[in-house]
What does this fold into?
Amino acid sequence: MVGRAHGSCGRGRAESTPIQPFLERNKPMHLRSSSTLAAAGLALTVLSTGAGADLFTFTAVINGAQEVPPVDTPATGTLSGVYDSNLNTFSFEWDITDNLIGNPASPGAHIHLGGFGVNGPIVFDFAEPDGTWPLSGSAVWEDIEPDLVTALFTEGLYVNFHTDAFPPGEVRGQIVPTPATVGLMGLAGLASARRRRS
It folds into this structure.
């Protein structure tokens, strides 16, 4: 099932939001396999217990080189987001440079299920109803299915922006945890290991 954005994508520049302070303190970081396992464990723990709600920050560097196959475009961008384990929401904002080859168009802008170098199905649509999307905006993904939360924590989701020149996508970025989130995942892994020893 594909989720739909709640609220408005808006036009023009994204306004400062409550997530901005978290995002300014964190930079992109790719996980290693042990961190990926810790992330999966943390995601499952967060979903199964409902306790210890926290905010986990994510980011994506967006460009044409990540498209499959790669797209030669000068456009780049960023995505910053926060997963709230208590509300089960992923609030995010994006900013794409205004030098796209094509115009933002249907099929739109989406979050897809898939790792680096792999195309996957759409799991969240945040484009306008006509398929267009603003260069800068924000959206909230609500009621995320447990397997997709796990995918979020294990670098299994990417954001894709489609244009009329490149309908499969002109720019794309893998959504990855920030260093602060990776640190929380490590603590969750230690706590889990201690519980198993007792």
